[in-house]
Write a structure and sequence with these properties.
The complex is a heterodimer of chains A (224) and B (166). By secondary structure, chain A is an all-alpha fold. Chain A is built from nine helices and no strands. Chain B has a three-stranded antiparallel beta sheet with strand order 1-9-8, with no helix packed on it. Chain B has a three-stranded antiparallel beta sheet with strand order 2-3-4, with no helix packed on it. The longest helix of chain B has 28 residues. At the A-B interface, helix 3, helix 4 and helix 5 of A face helix 1 of B.
Chain lengths: 224, 166
């Protein structure tokens, strides 16, 4: 049944080469944990991607209940966590996943560094990886404010002060992030929300696409 | 059962099984969360006491306001609604003012040409005094009724139910 539907579409669209090209590639022995168990360190990049997928999905569902408004943000989070079935689980996935992405991404970076996989001809992929690192940290920082509780507020105060300590343009950056030069309030929350769910994810998708296209183009780096 | 499962098939099935299990672990909580409005209990509304005494109600439909606390997820507010109330013998009738065409608000005797009917200004819908929709006008059914009661001489209003007078 499923096969016949697939064949019917494939006859017309010739889709097999498309997914073959994406999915069908050799995994070298030195990165396959089935051969050398220590090769699990090569899984960190894929795990980062997997958790990013969970973050995107759980985030999409959280926005069904969340409102980025100083009066209602905390209440809507409380509601989705306590009164919506499975809301606690979905928020939990997003909460713990957020930390896990950073951890996995850091381990991935360490693996690339210590195996020297960033060396020529893969320097550009390292650069894109560093941009991805910044994007993920930006997502973690902007997401922290959204529940609008005391921890969120003071963490953001600290973060904005750090941004403000940049020489010469620090004050401008701080005002641009907070939406006001003294208040951390209504405009800060909507800004952080917009950055968290639209701007940074857009950057993330583009950078991830480049990251993956480059690794397919250049192949996996050889063994040590 | 005599057919042998090849190593490749076995691996395929195991991997797809484990993969489906993991995917379900992700998708199920999210799906359940999204579908939550379908599974929320209908709130059992209590009777709301109005500021109108039962004695005041005449055979002429009058507008009776009532206010109640509406819990809308994380937002609780005072909502004011009203009913068209009149006396029919010993019975008190209360109609919801929501037009059965497209949900505008009907008014008693608002149309000069139909002084004894409910009138909806949006598309000129008309209802008789017992709530029956006048044929040839847009509404497709009679006006809904409210449960009514009495508390210390004051009119109380409850849930909406389909018209039982027509």
């Amino acid at each position: 049944m499923f096969n016949r539907i697939y064949d019917w579409i494939d006859d017309r669209m010739d889709i097999t080469p498309i997914w073959r090209d994406v999915a069908d590639h050799e995994v070298p022995e030195h990165v396959n944990p089935a051969y050398h168990f220590s090769a699990f360190v090569y899984c960190f990049g894929g795990l980062t991607f997997f958790i990013v997928l969970i973050q995107i999905l759980s985030g999409m569902f959280l926005t069904m209940y969340y409102v980025p408004d100083i009066v209602n943000a905390w209440n809507s989070v409380y509601y989705l966590q306590h009164d919506v079935a499975a809301g606690l689980i979905v928020r939990g996935m997003h909460h713990w996943g957020a930390s896990l992405v950073v951890v996995m991404m850091f381990l991935h970076t360490l693996r690339v560094f210590f195996t020297g996989a960033y060396k020529a001809p893969r320097e550009l992929n390292w650069v894109v990886g560093v941009l991805l690192f910044a994007t993920i940290l930006g997502l973690a920082f902007t997401g922290y404010l959204l529940p609008w509780d005391m921890k969120a507020l003071f963490a953001t105060k600290v973060g904005l002060d750090i941004a403000g300590s940049v020489p010469f343009i620090g004050d401008w950056i701080q005002t641009l992030l907070a939406g006001d030069d003294t208040i951390i309030g209504a405009q800060t929350l909507t800004r952080f929300f917009a950055i968290h769910v639209f701007f940074l994810p857009a950057a993330l998708f583009v950078l991830m696409a480049i990251h993956f296209i480059m690794i397919r183009r250049q192949g996996i780096a050889g063994p040590l | 059962m005599s057919q042998k499962v090849t190593r490749r098939q076995f691996l395929n099935y195991s991997l797809m099984g484990v993969g489906s299990f993991m995917a379900a672990g992700m998708i199920l909580p999210m799906g359940r969360m999204a579908l939550d409005p379908l599974f929320q209990d209908d709130s059992e509304g209590s009777m709301i006491t109005t500021s109108v005494t039962v004695d005041e109600i005449t055979e002429e439909p009058m507008q009776v306001d009532f206010t109640f606390e509406q819990e809308d997820a994380w937002y609780t507010s005072e909502v004011t609604d009203f009913a068209w109330v009149y006396r029919d013998g010993n019975e008190i009738i209360a109609f919801s003012p929501v037009c059965k065409h497209l949900g505008c608000t009907v008014t008693w005797a608002a149309d000069d040409n139909n002084p004894e009917r409910f009138f909806c200004p949006c598309h000129n819908g008309l209802y008789e005094k017992n709530g029956e929709n006048v044929p040839g006008t847009p509404p497709t059914g009679p006006l809904d009724q409210f449960e009514v009661g009495e508390s210390d001489g004051f009119l109380t209003i409850g849930q909406v139910f389909p018209n039982e007078l027509v």
